[in-house]
Amino acid sequence: MSNQANRGLEALINDQAVRLMMPGPDVEAEGWQEFLGDLKQLAEAQGRADVSRLASEYLAEGEASLPDMQQQLARLQKACEGRPAPPAALSQDPELVRDFIMESREHLQNIERSMLAIENDPSDVESIHGTFRAFHTIKGLAGFLEFAVIQEVAHEVETLLDMARNHQIELTGSTVDVILASADHLNQQLNPLEKTLLGEPAPDAPEPHDLLSQIRGILRGDKAAAEAAPPAEAEPMSVAPETVANSAADPAITPPDASELAFPMAEEALVSSSAAPTAPVAELAENLPAPVTAPVAAKPMAPTEIRAVEAKPEAKAPAVSKASAANTAPAASSGSMSSVKVDTGKLDYLVDMVGELVIAQSLVRHNPDLVALKNPSLMRTISQLGRITDEVQKTAMSMRMVPLETLFQKMIRLVRDLSRKAGKQIEMDIAGEDIELDRNIVEALADPLMHMVRNSIDHGIETSAQRSATDKPPVAKVKLHAAHQAGYIMITVGDDGRGMDRKKILAKARDRGLVENGDNLSDNDVFNLIFEPGFSTAEQVTDISGRGVGMDVVKRQIQKLRGRIEIVSVLGKGTEFTLKVPLTLAIIDGLIVGVGEERYIVPIFAIKEMLRPTAKMISTVEGRAEIALIRGRVLPVVRLYRRFGVEPKSQDPEQSLIIIAEARGRDFCLVVDDLIGKQEVVIKSLGDGIRPVPGIAGGAILGDGRVGLILDMNGVFSADQSTYDGANRAA
Amino acid sequence: MEAMTAAASTKIPVPPANDGRAGKYLAFQLGKEEYAIRVLKVREIIGVQEITTVPQTPDYIRGVFNLRGKVIPVVDLQRKFGFATTENNARTCIVVVEVASAGRIMLMGILVDAVSEVRNIAAGDIEDTPDFGRDVSVPYLLGVAKTKGQVNLLLDIDSALQTHEVEVLSSMAVS
Q: Span A92-300: which CATH code?
């Protein structure tokens, strides 16, 4: 229970809560400021540094809106009863730690981008400086908050980069690997901090020892450059398994990250040793034009390295295009664009309020008294207001959007790592990374895209030997394009690999009992079989993919985003997946339909057709279920008023409207009274206070300010099947 | 730090024994009874809005309404507690409360017949809920307060508006 010394503070907060509760002219900014001042004084007098700091923070923020005040009050209240003692160390201050995590994540992203740019162009001094500064900032912040491990790792990498800056070492394959691994490591160090912040049990942070010794190896290496790497070449069997064992012995790391972190290095050791005879050739070609012929250049490089191809004249053009694609990204972001971080809660609130503004604006505009005035100047002003409101709404909506750039960046990194791991030469073809999408969609796309890119590299793209045998360029291509199309975003993931083999897929599908014979299936139908659960054509399960969990999950995730996925594949030429996703999850186009007194919103993407039925169209089955015969097709009928227990205007089908909609891949007819209009609506949840209702996806504010319910077609259709059971049980 | 708090507490007069229930309450009427909820739970009080009914929900959930762009469910506590409902009148209003459920804070509206006033209820005025015997369980009450000769039922709004599991269980028990 609360500390006794808190009583005074609590009483003060209570009083203010009462004032806030009754909205009226007395809740003015001054009253609020005065309250904060009093509270601050009292808290100081009681030695409650945390409460007084919070109060002075809010005081400094100046005028606050009502919800802001309520939120601040709630926090003050919590501070008052929750934590009698102020935090012991800075690292305990959640605000500081949150800022630290956010800022560090941003820096780490920039680091990754810069490193990939450096790898393409080691003379890119600006990127080296940028990376140095980023590590330096992380180090400083970590030191301030006393996160010793982060500080140490950042410090070592900083030293490494400093040497690179001064041309003491060259940033090549394995050094870049180490720096990227350090960035990954720091990211992992942040995870437990974040978990603690959220109040979840935090996993132990990974141990940095291996990494640190690697970095230090390179640091020492400018005298004896080969020292760190050659042992790997000489005794690959002893070194490589050890690295793997180390990562396996550390169960604290989340498994996928661990393998990603440790694997490139172990793999490189193996590859470079097994391919040792060929390596020097590539290296020689590579190193001749290099400006610095330091001893480091003697370090063995994996022959699989993407850069190696640059030395070959015929591969030059694509390699350059790749470099420019990678380079444009940092250029765009390091420009003069300045930005402000905003709490997403505030953004959502802004969007809500703008929605209300639009409604209020339209109520004024259509007010009959105003219209009756027939005052042209007033009407002009009102339409001016309407245009401004539209603009404000558009801007508010666009604030939730983020460019695809960071997501694509992840894919570039993934391709780089995987291509080295798999020993395949791959260049990436990226377009449309500046296209903006809703933040939630971009996040939800990460896993499916990663999966498809992995599949392309693992199954799609052949080894260099296979490629040259089929007259293909040795450097394979992975394509990642995004483009706008009619209110949707099309994302294409493609490769110029071996393509999908109809026969193999069919054989596998028959094996799994997915199809009977399947010879008469179209190519498209055959390819779509890979979306069936448990289907994987990889002959061998590899580290990268082929475990049979996969494309079905990808498809489900895309569908969850109200998107679609399509495959085009030509045997021997390559495969292309096209994802079609909406720009935002927050807004849908809806048809507003009426049933009796109620209005419901039907998402337009679910509607195939609408028609007014004739009496002959609908017939009953066993006296209960109904079917409709529409142009030779027999479709089940769902009457929305029965489903929701609403009194309709008329039970006569001829007086109502049929919507043909799709649910779980089947078409059905939904009977409603009439069509009221079409509106773009912002989807809102009905809140935790109401149990999810089958058939209702959420709510939306309609044009007149009332709440309309958005229908979920799957729920409407399948819940209808179960109502019979429900009715039977009740009876 | 502990020394500081200890020093501070000697300066402040020690309030009488406090069981955590004393404080400011908003009193309101439901039918003929007078209830009170903690003021800090109350976000705002507004007149009756247009409510959209949601199908397939328990009858005490009146529906949802638009609170400045947010969709908020409205609960009719009279129906939930099983009294006869009174018709809406000029004094009927919606009290928007903050409810903690499964670690999250959510907003809900409760329909009340009239809001009376904000009362300061001292610890000495609060009594534990009397035991009505086995058949009457009153899990939603924090206690009973007597102020100005009136009885206020102190409502634990968090548990009164507790959602899913409880509902499912109770509906199963009834059938």
A: 1.20.120.160
* Per-residue pLDDT reduced to its tens digit, A28-38: 666 777 888 88
Contact assignment for B161 to A2 by CB distance below 8 Å: no
The pLDDT-based confidence of A623 (bands split at 50, 70, 90) is: confident
Class of domain A402-582: alpha beta
Q: Is domain A587-730 given the CATH code 3.40.50.850 in the classification?
A: no
Give B135→chain A minimum CA distance, Å. Answer: 26
Nearest CA in chain A to B38: A14
Of B7, B73, B101, the CB nearest to A686: B73
Write the CA distances from B146 to B27, B34, B38, integer angstroms: 12, 11, 15
Half-sphere exposure of A134 (CA within 13 A, CB side): 25
ipTM of the complex: 0.74
d(Cα A343, Cα A593) in Å, to the nearest integer?
A: 36
Domain boundaries, chain B: 19-174
Residue A509 · residue A475 · CB < 8 Å: no
Residue A722's pLDDT band (cuts 50, 70, 90): very low
Strands A426-431 vs A476-485: parallel, antiparallel or unpaired: parallel
- Tens digit of each residue's pLDDT (9 = 90 or more) over B79-108: 888 877 777 788 899 999 998 876 778 889
> Does the global pTM surpass 0.80?
no
Q: A177 vs A138, A236, A260, CA distance in Å?
A: 19, 18, 11
Homologous superfamily in CATH for domain B19-174: CheA-289, Domain 4 (2.40.50.180)
Q: Which of A226-230, A350-354, A494-498, B49-53 shows the lowest mean pLDDT across its residues?
A: A226-230
Domain segments of chain A as ranges: 4-86, 92-300, 344-399, 402-582, 587-730
A306 vs B26: CA distance, rounded Å: 70
pLDDT of residue A19: 73
Q: Which residues contact A126 (CB under 8 A, 6 or more apart)?
A: none
Pairwise CA distance, residues A376 & A290, whole Å: 74
Task: Count the residues in chain B.
Answer: 175
